[in-house]
Design a protein that fits this description.
434 Repressor (Amino-terminal Domain), eight-stranded antiparallel beta barrel, alpha+beta, 3 domains, Lipocalin
Length: 286
């Protein structure tokens, strides 16, 4: 399918009939005027990427299937602004070391047109998004924001842990730790061992074992990675030598002082860090 063709009308029509939904129901769920939706279903007009996502979500249909790609696991999310899609494209292109001209040529686009997409000045149609995703060898749902862009947690971190309950409960143990990010797992090394699983690019759940055991079990860990931030905060849990469940605060950061300050705020004043809320411009929403 070339970037200017739209052949998904029959797909959404068949899916709507399969779900026994009216055109009015689907258009309402997708936030569209029914006449506009009818043109998409007839194949008379190609939807933008954000509109295609809205239709796919309304029909519980994988975006990749709507685009004619191999079916991938479906996911639902709010429509991403054009600048978020542009950021995903730019990040992927730089990560695999391609020039804008190479991607544009592979996708069958003029370089000026591709640059408008990567800068977020123009929203991609579904067909163009499919062509660019293929050129960048990335899943279409990842480009569209349905699958979060992977974060890089590799390297050295500073971990600060609240001491186990006792006379020195508010003490903080700070040390460095090496993290190896492999797929959905983060392996912890250097002084203590552990393994974490990352969910939706923001929640990490797993266990760790200190080099000198302070509990009689491996300690469970729940950590939160705020969007656009470079630190994690959360809590650890374990079982004490006298068979009691114990818990404490913990924080990880790239900088030793920041790690300790985050833990100190959590322990001393129960003050949790509040990352800055970033809202896109209203004109960017589909």
């Amino acid at each position: 399918m070339s970037p200017t063709e739209w052949a998904g009308g029959e797909i959404i029509r068949a899916r709507r009939i399969e779900l026994d939904l009216t055109q009015a129901k689907v258009s309402q769920a997708a936030g569209l005027v029914m006449r506009q939706y009818q043109r998409y279903e007839k194949g008379e007009r190609e939807p933008s990427l954000s509109t295609a996502r809205a239709i796919a979500e309304a029909l519980d249909l994988p975006l990749s299937e709507l685009a004619g790609q191999t079916d991938l696991a479906s996911a639902t999310t709010t429509a991403a602004p054009a600048n978020a899609v542009a950021e995903a494209i730019q990040h992927r292109r730089r990560r695999i070391g391609l020039t804008q001209l190479t991607v544009a040529t592979t996708a069958g686009l003029d370089i000026e047109q591709y640059q408008r997409y990567e800068s977020g000045k123009e929203e991609l149609s579904l067909a163009v998004a499919t062509a660019i995703a293929a050129a960048l060898d990335m899943p279409l749902p990842e480009l569209a924001g349905l699958v979060p862009r992977p974060v890089d947690l590799n390297g050295k971190w500073w971990a600060s842990w609240q001491s186990a309950p006792g006379p020195t409960t508010n003490n903080i143990d700070t040390h460095s730790v090496a993290a190896l990010h492999a797929g959905g797992r983060i392996l912890l090394d250097s002084g203590w061992r552990g393994e974490l699983r990352i969910w939706n690019n923001e929640i990490l759940i797993g266990w760790y074992r200190p080099p000198v055991p302070v509990t009689r079990t491996r300690q469970g860990v729940f950590l939160w990675l705020p969007t656009h931030e470079n630190y994690l905060i959360g809590r650890w849990n374990g079982v004490s030598p006298n068979n009691a469940v114990i818990s404490g605060w913990c924080a990880l950061a790239r900088d030793e002082a920041e790690s300790r300050q985050l833990a100190d705020n959590l322990i001393g004043g129960k003050l949790q860090a509040r990352p800055t809320l970033r809202l896109p411009g209203l004109s960017n929403w589909g």
